[in-house]
Q: What sequence folds into this?
C-alpha cells in the first residue's frame, strides 16, 4: 500500500527504526566536590573501566596517554573496515557481517603502534564530541606535556574502553549502540574490572516510556544481577522553549487530552524545506484509543484520521513529497507490542508554515517532533510545536526508569581564552540569562509519560573545559564543536590552551557522573546501578544559582563528598536536619485528575554542614490536600526519602496541595494545578 511505497521510496529515513541518536573540570571539581572525596578515599579511578560510546576519541591527545606517552585506552571499537588484527573479536561483534555496521577492533598495543607510526587516519574523532566527553570522565590533563595538569577529569587513572560505532556525521543507530555497550562490558568482565558506560547520545524519537528496544536492551545489561556495572545517559538538550515572531512558547514536545467529541489539532511550525525529513512520535497511555491524522501546509488533509492498528500514506503531486501515519501497529518497525504509540512521518519539499497532527478518540497524547535535513534544529530552529512545554522532554534512552539520566547545570561564566590578556564573562547563553551553578535552560526535563521522575541527578555541563580533538581546533579552520559564534573580533575564544576548549550540553554533564561512579566502584566494586543512583541522590546538593523549573534538575546536583557520607556505615555528628539546608522536589509541575497517575516527591535532609542525615521516621510527615498518597513516605538511604501523591478522578481545575514537614515545621508548601494536560 501507500505506507509501503513511502518506506520503499525513502530508505534513508529509516522510518522503521527512527532517526539516529545524536551526540549530545578545573571549575567543575569545585561544584562536584571531588577533591574532598579523593582526599578521604584516595580514589582516582584505578582498576575501573570507564566506557565511552560516542563519536570516537583522539587517541593521540595527551589526556589519554600516560606520562611516558603510552595510551590509556585498553580497547577501541571503531566504525569502518575491519582490520583483522583481532579477527575473532570482530566476528563476535558482527564487524564483518554485511547485515551489521562494519567495525574494527584495536587494543592498546595497536593504538600505541599507530601513534608511533603517525598514521591515525583510521581512528580520528572528526566531530570532537567523544574526545571532549571522555576527558571529562577520565582525562588525566596531559602529564606528558604539562608537569602540572589543570584540566583533569573526574577519574584520571581509570582504564578507558571506547566505542565509536557509527561513521562520522551519521548519528548512532540503536543496534550499534547496544553492540558498543556490550563490547565495553564484555571487555571489563574479561579484565575482571567494574565498569561504567557513558552515553552522551540520544534523541527525541521514541516512546519515552522505557519500552523501546534500545532502552530495554541497555537496561538488561545493568541492574541487581550485574553488580559493578552502571550506565549513565545524558538527559538531552531539548528543554529549550522559543518565542518566534511573537508566538510561543514553541518546543519539540507537547501534550494533549483527546476527546471522542472533538478533533484535537496539534500544530507544528515548519521552515521552508526543499529536502526535509520529519518524525513525530506519539505515546498514549495503556487502554487509550486514539485515531491519528496528518494535515499539510495550507490546511490540506494529507492523511485522514487513522484508527489504532492501521496505517496510511500520502504522496504529493510532485511524486516526491510524502507522508505516513502508523498507528499502533505492533510489528517492531518502529512500534512494538509493549507501547501504545503512533508515528507520523513526512518528507520532501514544502513552504514555511504549519503542519498539524489531528487526534480524536479517548486518551492522553504525549508528542515529540524531530526534524532532519532542511528542517533540522540548525535551520531556523527546525520543527517546533507551537505550544511547546519543557516538562517531558527527557531524551531516549535516558527515559528508561533503570538508567541514570543526568541533567545540566552551568559550570562557569568566566574564562580566559588562550593568548588573551583579558577574561570573557558570559551573561547570557543563546539569549537566556545565566549564572554559575544554575540549571541549564536547555536541559531536558522529566517526568516520563507515565510519571517516572527524571533526571536522576544533574551535574556541570554548561561551559566545561576539556580535551579538544586535533581535528576540531578552530584555530586551524572554521566549523566544529568549538567554533562558537559571538567571540570578540571573531577569534576562537572558547580555546583555553593548545589541548583544551570549552563546550556545553548535558553531553558534558553525563561524564561528570560517569567519572564519579568510577570512583565509587574503586571503593566498592559490587555496587549496583540502583545502589549507585540512590547514593548519588542521597549525597546531592541543591545548586546555589537559579532553578526556574525543578523538573529539569532532578533531586539535586552531583556531590561526591556528600555521596561518600551517604554511603558511610555509621553516622557521625548531630542527627538534627537544618531545614534551611534541606529541600524536596516534585517530579511534575501539575497533577492529573487520575489516581493512577502519580507525582513523585524526593526529600533531601541535610545537617548544617550539608551532610546527609538520618532522622526518626515519626518526625517526617507529608500533608496532602485535594488528593491522596499514592506511595507511602519511605526512607531510601540516609538523607533521602521518597513518596508519591495523586489527584482523584473529576478533580480537573482544582489544586493539589503538598507540604513536607519535619517535627511539624514545613520545608515549603507546594500547590499543583490539576488538569488533563498542561493547558
A:
Amino acid at each position: 500500500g501507500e505506507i509501503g511505497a513511502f518506506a520503499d521510496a525513502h530508505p534513508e529515513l529509516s522510518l522503521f527504526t527512527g532517526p539516529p541518536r545524536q551526540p549530545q573540570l578545573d571549575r567543575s571539581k569545585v561544584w562536584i566536590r571531588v577533591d574532598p572525596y579523593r582526599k578521604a578515599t584516595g580514589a582516582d579511578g584505578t582498576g575501573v573501566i570507564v566506557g565511552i560510546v560516542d563519536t570516537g576519541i583522539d587517541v593521540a591527545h595527551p589526556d589519554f596517554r600516560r606520562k611516558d606517552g603510552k595510551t590509556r585506552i585498553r580497547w577501541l571499537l571503531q566504525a569502518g573496515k575491519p582490520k583483522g588484527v583481532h579477527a575473532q573479536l570482530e566476528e563476535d561483534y558482527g564487524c564483518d557481517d554485511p547485515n551489521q555496521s562494519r567495525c574494527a577492533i584495536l587494543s592498546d598495543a595497536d593504538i600505541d603502534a599507530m601513534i608511533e607510526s603517525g598514521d591515525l587516519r583510521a581512528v580520528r574523532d572528526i566531530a570532537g564530541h567523544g574526545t571532549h566527553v571522555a576527558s571529562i570522565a577520565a582525562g588525566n590533563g596531559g602529564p606528558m606535556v604539562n608537569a602540572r595538569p589543570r584540566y583533569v577529569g573526574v577519574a584520571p587513572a581509570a582504564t578507558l574502553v571506547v566505542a565509536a560505532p557509527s561513521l562520522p556525521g551519521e548519528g548512532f543507530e540503536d543496534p550499534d549502540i547496544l553492540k558498543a555497550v556490550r563490547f565495553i562490558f564484555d571487555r571489563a568482565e574479561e579484565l575482571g574490572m567494574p565498569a561504567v558506560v557513558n552515553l552522551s547520545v540520544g534523541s527525541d524519537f521514541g516512546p519515552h516510556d522505557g519500552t523501546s528496544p534500545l532502552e530495554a536492551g541497555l537496561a538488561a545489561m545493568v541492574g541487581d544481577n550485574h553488580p559493578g556495572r552502571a550506565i549513565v545517559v545524558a538527559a538531552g538538550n531539548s528543554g529549550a522553549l522559543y518565542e518566534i515572531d511573537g508566538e510561543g512558547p514553541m518546543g519539540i514536545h507537547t501534550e494533549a487530552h483527546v476527546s471522542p467529541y472533538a478533533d484535537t489539532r496539534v500544530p507544528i511550525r515548519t521552515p521552508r524545506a526543499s529536502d526535509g525529513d520529519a518524525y513525530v512520535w506519539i505515546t498514549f497511555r495503556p487502554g487509550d484509543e486514539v485515531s491519528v491524522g496528518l494535515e499539510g501546509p495550507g490546511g490540506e488533509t494529507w492523511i485522514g484520521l487513522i484508527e489504532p492498528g492501521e496505517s496510511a500514506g500520502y504522496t504529493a503531486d510532485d511524486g516526491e513529497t510524502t507522508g505516513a501515519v502508523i498507528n499502533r501497529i505492533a510489528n517492531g518497525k518502529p512500534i512494538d507490542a509493549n507501547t501504545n504509540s503512533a508515528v507520523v512521518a513526512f518528507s520532501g519539499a514544502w513552504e514555511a508554515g504549519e503542519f498539524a497532527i489531528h487526534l480524536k478518540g479517548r486518551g492522553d497524547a504525549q508528542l515529540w517532533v524531530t526534524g532532519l535535513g532542511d528542517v533540522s534544529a540548525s535551520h531556523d530552529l527546525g520543527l517546533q510545536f507551537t505550544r511547546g512545554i519543557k516538562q517531558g522532554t527527557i531524551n531516549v534512552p535516558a527515559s528508561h526508569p533503570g538508567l541514570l539520566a543526568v541533567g545540566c547545570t552551568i559550570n562557569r561564566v568566566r574564562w580566559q581564552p588562550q593568548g588573551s590578556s583579558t577574561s570573557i564573562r558570559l551573561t547570557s547563553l543563546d539569549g537566556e540569562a545565566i549564572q554559575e551553578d544554575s540549571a541549564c535552560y536547555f536541559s531536558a526535563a522529566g517526568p516520563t509519560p507515565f510519571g517516572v521522575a527524571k533526571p536522576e541527578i544533574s551535574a556541570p555541563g554548561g561551559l566545561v573545559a576539556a580535551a579538544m580533538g586535533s581535528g576540531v581546533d578552530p584555530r586551524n579552520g572554521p566549523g566544529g564543536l568549538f567554533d562558537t559564534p559571538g567571540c570578540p573580533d571573531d577569534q576562537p575564544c572558547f580555546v583555553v590552551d593548545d589541548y583544551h576548549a570549552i563546550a556545553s550540553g548535558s553531553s558534558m554533564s553525563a561524564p561528570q557522573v560517569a567519572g564519579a561512579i568510577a570512583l565509587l566502584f574503586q571503593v566498592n566494586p559490587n555496587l549496583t546501578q540502583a545502589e549507585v543512583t540512590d547514593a548519588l541522590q542521597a549525597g546531592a546538593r541543591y545548586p546555589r544559582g537559579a532553578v526556574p523549573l525543578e523538573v529539569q534538575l532532578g533531586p539535586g546536583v552531583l556531590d561526591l563528598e556528600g555521596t561518600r557520607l551517604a554511603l558511610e556505615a555509621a553516622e557521625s555528628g548531630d542527627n538534627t536536619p537544618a531545614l534551611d539546608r534541606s529541600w524536596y522536589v516534585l517530579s511534575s509541575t501539575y497533577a492529573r485528575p487520575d489516581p493512577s497517575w502519580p507525582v513523585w516527591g524526593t526529600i533531601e535532609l541535610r545537617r548544617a554542614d550539608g551532610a546527609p542525615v538520618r532522622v526518626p521516621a515519626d518526625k517526617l510527615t507529608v500533608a496532602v490536600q485535594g488528593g491522596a498518597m499514592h506511595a507511602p513516605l519511605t526512607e531510601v538511604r540516609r538523607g533521602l526519602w521518597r513518596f508519591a501523591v495523586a489527584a482523584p478522578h473529576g478533580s480537573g481545575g482544582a489544586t493539589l496541595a503538598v507540604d513536607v514537614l519535619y517535627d511539624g515545621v514545613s520545608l515549603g508548601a507546594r500547590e499543583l494545578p490539576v488538569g488533563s494536560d498542561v493547558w
